[in-house]
Write a structure and sequence with these properties.
This protein has about 625 residues and is an alpha/beta fold. It has 18 helices and 31 strands. The structure holds coenzyme A and adenosine monophosphate.
Length: about 625
């Protein structure tokens, strides 16, 4: 039996032994009474009774064990022309001072702290400082607008918000403080304090009594030590898109998370302590949590914080420069980033300028890796290119080629096989297993492995109804796909309203809620259509109120502006059109799937249940006017 199969079988047959062994890689303050507490099933808890501190495991123990002078964090910011390396000792100094600031503002174990930061070292320090004192961080991606931020403030109810005066998008300075002030204004919950890092590019206006200057607070801070927390205590809440405008607060615990992160660094990514691992994502996304912040640091490796883009900062060679300059052993990015590089530099002329022989593997996630992008990367890099499938909910990969275990041949379009810990099943509508090669809903037999989410923040009911009720005894992933005869899985798309735009997870349902709030709109539909660069992009269709005598183009422009204002630029909502009627079934269900097929130019059958087939004519005409289908 190969290494993979042996480990995979063990993880499913004897999960407690498997994960107890993996847990030896973590320093515990107190051992567990139960590796897996299933007394409240279907709610499972890993390492119940154990105590630890995640920040201690990510920093202090490495300082104590001879890594004090090793680089922990490399900050590379082409947009500000800055490069800076922090050793583990320096990171410890900074994080314990920031933890001291939080403590002095009254933050204690279990309190929430919201982090709204650009890609600068202080963002990672903020997360670790929270972990140090047992506070629960909730990082919000910088591309979200005030309204989205307010929704998260209301749900997480943070006592303190850590933020910066601005982010930098290419050459544009994005002022964060007005967005933050707007969000606090909009939300019912008000944080007692905000701590604002003034960046040289923008001086934020401060509000007396509430806003604290980051640098002054650090200068006056008394460093604090780690607080021991329960393995089952939450480390963070990360909001992700669901089917409505109310995002889901995915909770991550401390113990299971630390164990899973360590296991993946070794067995999935094959990264040794001391090596450099770069996840070119953002701390606002789950990839940033797991593999910019926690995974590499728990492992005693070096992480890279890159404040830039794959293209335009300054050119499509940016990734290759960072790899060669900082001796990156593995890069983790989204296929969309490679497509952006390929579009500007198809022959990889920029790549040829750099020696990237240090790089052993490229990992891709966030969306399905299309075979063209895979071949391009394989041809040009001549190293293993690993597409791996995961979700905010799981926090780490569900399917992957586990390079630290056994490398399998790659099948284009497949993220290879289920990772140890995940009992992945492909189910039909009645919950029956479908045959190899047949499409099904993808579910994971409970319990999920350590490091996945035990619940949604203060919403166990939604946790159960969203994920556990469709297939009893299984976690419903929301993805559909199939498994071939060799056990390779293929992820073909979502079964819900979630779309993936440039590796960013977004909800068309949330966009529909915003469009429907426009006073002239009677009803609407938003669909995700195929996009050569971003994977998918949203298109909105709106029907106007009968009394609204408005110019269609004006309304379309207003809808685009409204989504940008309410959800944020990250929604990349650039196309809207007004129609007289939406195609529906006789029972009133909008035929979004049919509209999507029409926009994508793929063959589709008009459902027999359609109420009025003539509605499709107007959709076809409007799509044509907007340039869809692209392939036509
Ligand atoms: N703060 C503020 N605005 C942001 C932002 C942030 N952190 N991130 C994105 N935006 C803005 C962008 O500036 C853009 O604004 P615009 O409409 O005014 O131009 C908008 O949101 C859409 O952004 P995006 O979809 O990212 O498009 P882009 O053209 O700026 O970049 C890519 C395209 C492919 C280069 C970029 O999306 C990318 O690198 N994606 C990879 C994502 C990733 O790593 N995902 C994590 C999974 S591993
Ligand atoms: P997120 O929660 O933002 O990580 O998005 C998770 C969703 O992105 C999954 O449910 C999938 O739909 C999609 N996804 C992520 N990685 C992959 C992949 N490697 N292949 C196919 N889809 C993916």
């Amino acid at each position: 039996m190969g290494q993979y199969l042996e480990q995979y079988k063990q993880s499913l047959d004897q999960p407690e032994n498997f994960w107890a062994k993996a847990a030896e890689a973590i320093d515990w303050d107190q051992t567990w009474s139960n590796v897996l507490d299933d007394s409240q099933a279907p709610q499972y808890r890993w390492f119940a009774g154990a105590k630890l501190n995640t920040c201690y495991n990510a920093i202090d123990r490495h300082v104590a064990n001879g890594r004090a002078d090793q680089a922990a964090l490399i900050y590379d910011s082409p947009v500000t022309g800055t490069k800076k390396t922090y050793s583990y000792q320096e990171l410890l100094n900074e994080v314990s001072k920031l933890a001291g600031v939080l403590s002095s503002l009254g933050v204690t174990k279990g309190d929430r702290v919201l982090v709204y930061m650009p890609m600068i070292p202080e963002g990672v320090m903020a997360m670790l400082a929270c972990a140090r004192i047992g506070a629960i961080h909730s990082v919000v991606f910088g591309g979200f607008a005030a309204n989205e931020l307010a929704t998260r403030i209301n749900d997480a109810k943070p006592d303190v918000i850590l933020s910066a005066s601005c982010g930098i998008e290419g050459s544009r300075v994005i002022k964060y403080k007005p967005l933050l002030d707007g969000a606090i204004e909009l939300s019912d919950h008000k944080p007692a304090y905000t701590v604002i890092l003034q960046r040289p590019q923008e001086q934020a206006e401060m509000q007396d009594g509430r806003d604290v200057d980051w640098a002054t607070a650090i200068a006056n801070s008394t460093p604090v030590d780690c607080v021991s927390v329960d393995a089952t205590d939450p480390l963070y809440i990360l909001y992700t898109s669901g089917t409505t405008g109310q995002p889901k607060g995915v909770v991550r615990d401390n113990g299971g998370h630390a164990v899973a992160m360590m296991w993946t660094m070794k067995y999935l990514y094959n990264i040794e302590p001391g090596e450099v691992f770069w996840a070119a994502s953002d701390i606002g996304w789950v990839v940033g949590h797991s593999y910019i912040c926690y995974g590499p640091l728990l492992n005693g490796s070096t992480t890279v914080i890159f404040e830039g883009k794959p293209v335009g900062t300054p050119d499509p060679g940016a990734f290759w420069r960072v790899i060669s300059e900082h001796k990156v052993a593995s890069l983790f990015t989204a296929p969309t980033a490679l497509r952006a590089i390929r579009k500007e530099d198809p022959d990889c002329l920029h790549l040829k300028k750099y020696d990237i022989s240090c790089m052993r593997a490229l990992f891709l996630a966030g969306e399905r890796c299309d075979p063209d992008t895979l071949f391009w990367a394989q041809d040009n890099l001549q190293i293993p290119v690993v597409d791996h499938w995961w979700q905010t909910e799981t926090g780490w990969a569900i399917a992957s080629n586990c390079l630290g275990l056994e490398e399998f041949p790659v099948k284009p379009g497949s993220p290879t096989k289920p990772v140890p810990g995940y009992d992945v099943r492909f189910l039909g509508d009645a919950g029956e297993a479908v045959a190899a090669g047949e499409m099904g809903a993808i579910a994971i037999k409970l319990p999920l492995p350590p490091g996945t989410f035990p619940t949604l923040w203060q919403n166990e009911q939604r946790f159960r109804s969203s994920y556990l009720e469709t297939f009893e005894g299984y976690y419903e992933t929301g993805d559909a796909g199939y498994q071939d005869e060799d056990g390779y899985v293929y992820i073909m798309g979502r079964t819900d309203d979630v779309i993936n735009v440039a590796g960013h997870r977004l909800s068309t349902g949330a966009m529909e809620e915003v469009i429907a709030s426009h006073p002239d709109v009677a009803e609407c539909a938003v669909i995700g259509v195929a996009d050569n660069l971003k994977g998918q992009s949203p298109i909105g269709f709106a029907v106007l109120q009968s009394g609204a005598h408005r110019n269609d183009d004006d309304v379309a422009k207003e809808l685009i502006a409204l989504i940008r204002e309410k959800i944020g630029p990250v929604a990349a909502f650039k196309v809207a059109t007004v129609v007289k009627r939406l195609p529906k079934t006789r029972s009133g269900k909008i035929l979004r799937g049919t509209m999507r097929s029409m926009a994508d130019g793929v063959e589709h059958k008009v459902p027999a249940t359609i109420d009025d087939p003539t509605t499709l004519g107007e959709i076809t005409n409007n799509l044509k006017a907007l340039g869809y289908p692209k392939s036509a």
